[in-house]
Write a structure and sequence with these properties.
Length: 385
């Protein structure tokens, strides 16, 4: 019998995060600091709106692009919060931000087009580029630059085949953010080389130095940018599976065409809940952000004091400590920490080769859980000594 499987799909590695947590799930009484999921419940008034939509029998398909009232609220939200100027007809509601990333690449790439991907980064960009027929070009970001994309690194990666630059900030796994001045440098290079940007801003509300800056707010960039965002991280709505893309109409039209064939429409109940989130949920976001910020400061201080050097991240809910001095790979360190102290973190190389020598630790957990985990990490380090 012939091989039923696609060679392209067979060549794609499974997620390093999920592979590690398959191992973690075999160990009992684990303290997990690895999953990128808020520990808050979805605020009650948002859940209540979802319940009400079911009680009213709103269980039908919506339009392919999503409920118009939701797209109107997203448009207003983006303009008020981040000065991002997309109208309702330039917005597509998707099944999580991940779907938006996937169909965004499929709508924009022809075979052989190159996509610049700064690493360490979210694990989905590279396989999605490959499945869309594109060629991923990875840039290794460095701790000395606080894992920010520099103009020098971007220029060095551009070729005549480059079409799209992925901009993954605030960053998963490092927590790095980029300022308006730093984004301006990137924007100038993008315009100079007639490129496009996929800006993944799913952590836009979790920025601790001040309001998030979107590259799409820079003059001349909205027409060159796909903004990826959603409700999972900011509004603690991971299981509702709702994201969106905002982009020039010509791009959104083609993304919607793909979406209508493979998805039809995002979950109706989730869309009604999301309208309520945008209308009345910003105070919830601010409350959760303040809690994350307290945990962030606590975790960075404690890790540095115990000898795990950690630059200060100003976005998302991750820290990225350097463990290279222990002479172990990230995989070995994380595996031994799991086996010997029952604390689960993610090896840094799950997010790209340049993540080797680091760990991703999430602080989307209570202070009590963080304290318990830190005690065990300290025990692990002491035993190594």
């Amino acid at each position: 019998m012939r091989n039923p499987l696609s060679k392209l799909v067979m060549e794609i590695e499974p997620s390093g995060i999920r592979r590690f947590f398959d191992v973690a799930n075999t160990v009992e009484n684990v303290i997990s600091l690895g999953v990128g999921e808020p520990d808050f419940d979805t605020p009650w008034h948002i859940r209540e709106e979802g319940i009400y939509s079911l009680e009213k029998g709103r269980t039908y398909y919506t339009s392919n692009a999503g409920l118009l009232p939701l797209r109107q609220e997203i448009s207003t939200y983006l303009q008020k919060r981040f000065q991002v100027p997309y109208g309702p007809d330039e917005i597509l509601v998707t099944v999580g931000g991940s779907e938006a990333i996937d169909i965004g690449f499929r709508a924009m790439l022809d075979p052989g087009d190159e996509v610049i991907i700064p690493e360490p980064c979210f694990v989905s960009y590279l396989p999605c580029v490959r499945m869309a027929g594109g060629v991923p070009v990875q840039i290794s970001l460095e701790e000395k630059d606080e894992f920010k994309l520099t103009g020098e690194k971007l220029r060095a990666a551009i070729t005549e085949k480059t079409k799209v630059v992925v901009l993954p900030f605030p960053n998963n796994p490092t927590g790095a953010v980029m300022s308006a001045e730093e984004l301006q440098v990137i924007a100038d290079i993008v315009k100079e080389n007639d490129l496009f940007v996929m800006s993944d801003e799913i952590y836009s509300e979790l920025s601790y130095l001040g309001p998030h800056v979107s590259i799409a707010s820079i003059p001349g960039m909205a027409e060159r940018t796909i903004v990826i965002n959603g409700f999972s991280k900011s509004f603690a709505m991971t299981g509702w599976r709702l994201g969106y893309a905002a982009a020039p109409r010509v791009v959104i039209q083609q993304m919607t065409k793909i979406h209508q064939y493979v998805i039809m429409s995002a979950p109706t109940t989730s869309q009604y809940a999301a309208i309520e989130a945008l209308k009345n949920g910003i105070e919830d976001v601010e409350r959760m952000r303040e809690s994350y910020n307290q945990r962030r400061r606590f975790l960075v201080k404690e890790l540095n004091e115990m000898g795990l050097p950690c630059f200060e991240p100003y976005g998302a809910f991750y820290v990225f400590p350097n463990i290279s001095k222990f002479g172990m790979s990230s995989e070995e360190f994380a595996t031994r920490l799991l086996q010997e102290q029952r604390v689960a973190v993610v090896p840094g190389d799950a997010f790209g080769k340049c993540g080797e020598g680091f760990l991703r630790i999430s602080y989307a957990y209570s202070i009590e859980d963080l304290k318990r985990a830190l005690e065990k990490i300290q025990n692990f380090i002491d035993n190594l000594s």
